[in-house]
Amino acid sequence: MITKMKKLTFVVYHKEYESFLQQIRLLGVVHIVERQRGEMDETLQSYLQKRSLYKNLLTTMQRQAGEGAVDKTVHTELSADEIITTYDTLQLHIQDLSQQLPTCEKEMAQLDPWGDFDWKVIEQLRNAGWFVQFYDCVEREYDAEWETEYNAVVIREQGGHINFITITPCLVNLGMEPLRLPTLSLSQLRQRKGEIEAEIGRATEKLTAFCSTYSHTLEYYNRHLQGDIDLWKVKLNSAPLAEGSVILLEGWIPEENEADIRHLLDDSSVYYEIRNAMKEDAAPIKLKNNAFIRMYEILTKMYGMPDYAEFDPTPVIAPFFSLFFALCLGDAGYGLMLVLLGFFLKKKLSKSLAGLMNLVITLGAVTTVIGAVLGTFFGLSLFDMDLPEWMKQFMVVGKVGETNYDKSMLLALLIGVFHICFAMTVKAICSTVRYGFKESLSAWGWLLLVVGFVCTGGLSFFEIISEDVSTWAFIIIGSVSAIGIYLLNNIHRNVFVNIGSGLWDTYNMATGLLGDTLSYMRLYALGLAGGMLGGVFNQLAFMVNDAAGPVIGWLLCGLILVFGHALNIAMSCLSAFVHPLRLTFVEYFKNSGYEGKGEAYTPFSVVEEK
């Protein structure tokens, strides 16, 4: 449900404004109304840019430090800017060293054909009047007479190339450019490469140690920067009056916190007014649900918070999403694995993520029950096992009577029809509460038409009512519905405009409802696919077991079962999350008229220390 809100208006003397802000910040219950502004304030823009820099660097430093290696002590001897500068310096040093490695390796590759020689010998020959030149040419270009004329010596022949030198009393021209080799020997280059790699290792260790020591400190500065941003936003949303002598500020508080804010304001010289939020107000949204429903609020927030005049969809999402997830996963064994995984990860993860594991455990428990009803356990058919007949009576397995329709498929379609009818009921009720009954006649007309036709058709199919009764029921329901759909869909418009609008709505409904209903076939198809894939892994594992013998066979059988079912669980869970989410966000929200454009309640408060 949506917590009722109160609108506050403050008028504060400008000299008391800063202390007043600190008081309501410490109280931490006032959501400040954000005013429309033109261009972004330069100070706020610089704050936001700095926060983006902090967050990006913080992610990099935490990754560099490694999991579990972060020092939780706040080291304020370095400011945030000094941490950034030091990190950049260390990182640039590593990059500079890393850029030297390719150059060193390239020079080693140039000297490799010539071997490890000493350049001092070459220099001594030059001083003695003998010039040594290095050449590289293809085999067909090499002239053997050079060995006589220029004392050419072949150093290496490989891949159609010849590396040779000439030793002459003066520089010669062979028609090709002599090579310019590095001035260090091959052994010196190898030593240099080792020194660079060692220096990179030391620099990396230094950077890792720095990140471990100061990443938590940067997180501390980032939280305080967020506090500065929040304070500055509040100041921007304040309106100076009477030439700046007083300042107007507006905000929202939950109804349950009214006594706290009155106690604070009554002890101050601040003028204030408090009134109840109206339906047309853009009040912030604070959801208030029990422990079970609260787990599913994350799904509502993924789509968008409700408007203050709307209903909280979370209580409806919770049971339907759980059912859809269980039908898509469709295996009691996989449900048990989710329950065990949830309890295991709940102890390993952080407090915020541990709460998410409660949702995993709940979905696993529902899947276990629904999987048993569908008669599947780790890809095995429970219906074919030697179980008591009373247990099998609860399983939705096999065909419907003598038809070719699968019970699970019809169950998925019936659930879809009920879900859409429920959504249309919610839309009619919400529209009536929000706009009044006269403005909601179209929604009630469509609800009467769809639900009335579905109920009448069902009663006629099961022969509870006669064919004549059902015919008259269809006529009466259709006639009454047509009045709301075509004539009274908007009582403020011309009747002919209403008829045209009703025809357009009819086209959308006729094409949309059929597609929406068929979308629920995914519940059956995904559950069937997961069960069949699990059965294939079972067959493959036991085929290998029979073929490979008792020892190796059981080992390979176990590996196939573990790997196969783990892979199937992972893929099935992904599908079982995405497709129910789609059925909720598209089929249900569209037919229920949910918009989800509300603003979340974010009170102005002190930044929490961690």
Please outline the helices and strands.
Blueprint: E1 5-13, H1 17-27, E2 31-32, H2 42-65, H3 80-111, H4 119-127, E3 131-138, H5 146-149, E4 153-158, E5 161-168, H6 186-236, E6 239-241, E7 246-254, H7 258-266, E8 271-276, H8 291-294, H9 297-303, H10 314-329, H11 332-348, H12 351-374, E9 376-377, E10 380-381, H13 389-392, H14 407-435, H15 441-461, H16 467-487, H17 495-519, H18 521-548, H19 550-592
Antiparallel strand pairs: 1-7, 1-8, 2-7, 3-5, 4-5, 6-7, 9-10
Helix pairs in contact: 2-6, 3-6, 10-12, 10-18, 10-19, 11-12, 14-15, 14-17, 14-18, 14-19, 15-16, 18-19
Short description:
The chain has 610 residues and is of the alpha+beta class.
Describe what you observe in this structure:
With 610 residues, the chain is of the alpha+beta class. Among the domains are: 5-80 and 206-276, no CATH class; 117-184, no CATH class. 62% of the residues lie in helices and 9% in strands. The chain contains 19 helices and ten strands. The chain has helices at 17-27, 42-65, 80-111, 119-127, 146-149, 186-236, 258-266, 291-294, 297-303, 314-329, 332-348, 351-374, 389-392, 407-435, 441-461, 467-487, 495-519, 521-548, 550-592, and strands spanning 5-13, 31-32, 131-138, 153-158, 161-168, 239-241, 246-254, 271-276, 376-377, 380-381. Strands 1, 2, 6, 7 and 8 form a five-stranded antiparallel sheet that branches. A three-stranded antiparallel sheet has the order 3-5-4, with helices on one face. A hairpin with a 2-residue loop joins strand 9 and strand 10. Helix 10 (314-329) runs parallel beside helix 18 and helix 11 (332-348) packs antiparallel against helix 12. The longest helix is centred in the middle third of the chain and has 51 residues, at 186-236. It is extended, with a radius of gyration of 38 Å. The chain starts with a strand and ends in an 18-residue tail after the last helix. 24% of the residues are buried. The model has no long low-confidence stretch (mean pLDDT 84).
